[in-house]
Amino acid sequence: MSQKYHHLNEFILGPNKGILAIMHVLSHDGYRVMCDLPLGDPCDNPESCRWTKFLKSRAITEHLCHAYPEKGPALLPSDKKALASVLTWKEVEAGQFNVQASKLAFELFYKAFLFGGTADEAVVAEHEERLAKVLDVYEVRLSKNKYLGGDEYSLADLNHLPCLHFLVGTPVKKIFDSRPHVSKWCTDALARPAWAKVVAMM
User: Fold this and answer.
1) In the chain, at which end, N or C, are there fewer CB atoms within 10 A of the end residue's CB?
2) 3-class DSSP assignment, residue 200
């Protein structure tokens, strides 16, 4: 029986694209139900809480990796040392990269798309500078390993895709292009067949 996944409209919200990507990677036959959750804590609404099990996209992607290990490549390695590396860089994505990248994506894409606004150039400059420092760390890491978690593509890489997709279509792309190992990693990640399927749905 197919598992049902409820989440916000993935054509608008970037993180949900990561969920779609991993479903394609794992060739998972679950299906999606578009829904709108109220602002604030969704569990303030008993009706939404009847079916909501996971609300965060990273929790959902990790759950799918654990739930369907036999499908597709191992995005979370079984080797304990390799897994520790992947989980470390997964945390770096969430706590360092995404903090800056999501603000840039909002200013440079969502602000106009959702609200008809224009980017605040001062905010863009501030977070571009901060993201550049994160990418300096990535450049060192990727000069020694093909992917962030090690030699194999993993969930640590996949979780970057939604923000990467938007940012490489903006002037911020230059901070990726100016770092050769980061640039190569971006090109590889964004060219993945599973991600291409997500992009085709947009």
Assistant:
1) N
2) helix
